[in-house]
Amino acid sequence: GNSVTQMEGPVTLSEEAFLTINCTYTATGYPSLFWYVQYPGEGLQLLLKATKADDKGSNKGFEATYRKETTSFHLEKGSVQVSDSAVYFCALEADTGANSKLTFGKGITLSVRP
Amino acid sequence: KAGVTQTPRYLIKTRGQQVTLSCSPISGHRSVSWYQQTPGQGLQFLFEYFSETQRNKGNFPGRFSGRQFSNSRSEMNVSTLELGDSALYLCASRYRAGTGELFFGEGSRLTVL
Q: Looking at the complex, does the CB of residue A42 fall below 8 Å from at least one CB of chain B?
């Protein structure tokens, strides 16, 4: 079946540090890949997405590139801020059509110190 | 445009009871999905409804059920509650099943004592 593996957390960084959060996946076909973010006390929000190999998703300074050869979709940001403190989930959606559903990784908590 | 609204936000139940959670999707969205979020298992898909029909279902026991109404609002029900059902239940909507961005509500946090 489909699965998403994220690096173990939590991650604590100082403000302006470089961020990488690893994500690899297993899926049949050509899934779409997503990063969702969950701020404290809130639901999930879509951060960025990529729908085909070599696509780069970007938003709010975050980037991730769909790498089919390594089945990866690592999240990066060049300079994190305290406001980036949240839980980050990598997800995939394989299958098109009405049976499609999102499969999430376990999430990783990011804390950014001033 | 109003977001996805879930009620209640917090609730406490005891083992053996049942619970019903409600979700109002974004206006115009006809698909509603439900997810269970726990520290141990992360986010797990429960089911998705579109046009009042269940289109997809995750690997949960029959105690977990749902339905969708003609106005696209959805409810999920958990019967015979167990301690392990304590979780944040998230609802998400999108325009139609199987495609498009999911918009999540803030969740209903269920504690089973």
A: yes
Q: Is the dihedral of CA A53, A54, A58, A61 positive or negative?
A: positive
pLDDT of residue A97: 61
Q: By the 8 A CB rule, do B22 and B75 touch?
A: yes
Rounded alpha-carbon distances, angstroms, from residue B12 to B47, B89, B111 = 23, 13, 5
Rounded CA separation A88/A21 (Å): 9
How many Å separate Cα A92 from the centre of its chain?
A: 9
pLDDT at B65: 97
B98: which chain A residues are within 8 Å (Cβ-Cβ)? Answer: 95-100
Q: How far apart are CA B46 and CA B68, in angstroms?
A: 14
